[in-house]
Amino acid sequence: MAKTALNATPVVKIRGAAIKDEYVQRLADARFSDELGASASATLRFADPLFELFSGNFAKINDSVEFSIADETGKKVQLFRGVIVGVAIDQGFSEGHQLVINAYDQSNKLSRLESPKAHLNVSPAELIRKIAKRNGLTAKVSIPTVQLDYFMEIDDDQTTLDFLAARLGFEWWVEDKKLVVQPPKLQSAIKLTWRESLTNFSARYSGAARVDSVTVRGWDPDTQKPVSGVAKRSALSGRSIGADVPLYSARAKQSKALGGNAVVTDSPVANAKEAKVMAEALQGDIAANELMVTGDCVGEPGLGVGKSVKIEGLGPQLSGSFFLTRVEHRYSSETTLVTKFEAGRGNSFSLGERLASTQRKVDRSLRQFALGTVTNIKDPEKSGRVRVKVPSLSQADESNWARVVAPGAGADRGLQLPYEVGDEVMVAYLGGDPRFPVVVGGVWSKKHKPPVPDVAPKDKVGQRTLRFGSGSQIAVIDDDKGKAACLRLEHQDKTTFISLGEDGIEMESQSKGKIVIKVGKASLELDG
CA-CA distance, 330 to 27, in Å (whole number)? Predict the structure, then answer.
């Protein structure tokens, strides 16, 4: 027997106080939408034919708004609490106008707080708790334990959460004022029975994107060895992606014949453990996208993102439990409360596209080169690294230790011209990850000019110079025709030099010092 629609009068609060009954009677429609990794939203429509609500102080931007309704047991359930961000007047399909109120929950702040900040020796769980705190939220965190030597937040908090979620394999959502961060997990489920409380149901399984293994590869510069992590599809069950239903397990077995192997090489990892965690996250994401479930039910205000439903009465393949990824409640004066829900994801994107989409915002300023200044040259590992500040990212925070590109660099060899504190340099980030900066070279400027400002007075380069901080230099000087060159080694006072040219070798010292030439035990000394 079909369950009757929930017949209950809602409680609407604006600025913390319940609105009058006469205004509740004007509530024509209210919709509340929530999904993983996004802010919950609300749209309320009130009949306002004379524009009194719109023109008065009924609802203002930044007013708090709450919506609650009783379930079939009489228990009041809060469907939404947030802040009004928009108001409108809309005629819609009828002759009468309606006041339209748009609101978001507390998590909407996550996309507006953007303050680049560097963190040393921090775990993702610590980062998430800090994000929650500065957005007025508490945090419930259950994710893999990974320690990051360095992490720079360069975008808004929501993008940072998305970035970490993609690499560590968790979902995030907000319950009232609590930020929940964890992998999909089936919990105590609300029971929905087909043709009773469940009025509409669809399910789809696709193994098109299935892979038997995901391998994440990287490079460890400390050990000079490759690192990798592998996640096998066989290690995953339906419960691990939030679907305890025969449909998923049976079709997953059938899709084994479609399997392949995926290798990820463009997302840097610091070590093998991080590579393993990321591979597992990507494999789990692929598995979750194999399933898409949608349904409609009546009288179930308790359904929400992160909660579970248990479906009954749909036969042996479809009956089971699902972790909800999207929920929409709709209240109207005619049908009271109807709820739509989704489980799984059902995206058709490839592995690379899904990974890229989660990092696109984070990477946008790091896929390009950035200009910075050297701030620290005392590398504790004595491997030639430097720290820099990149003003376009943050004027307060230093980078992680940056490796330095040098001509011919290798074991105990290469051209070693160390940077000084204050030097302007060009910085690149491997894979767009701020944990892995590389200094690719220094740059000159109007303030810091090159050693020879005008090297081509006659539209032809006539001198190439290597000058040191002391002022001493090595110069290769071409003749006017560019056919002969002179190699000149100059002291900082310019009057002491050695010149090797086509016409011979010239050696001169105008200082009070002397010139000494030694060969074995013999020596020649010239004292000016």
Answer: 12
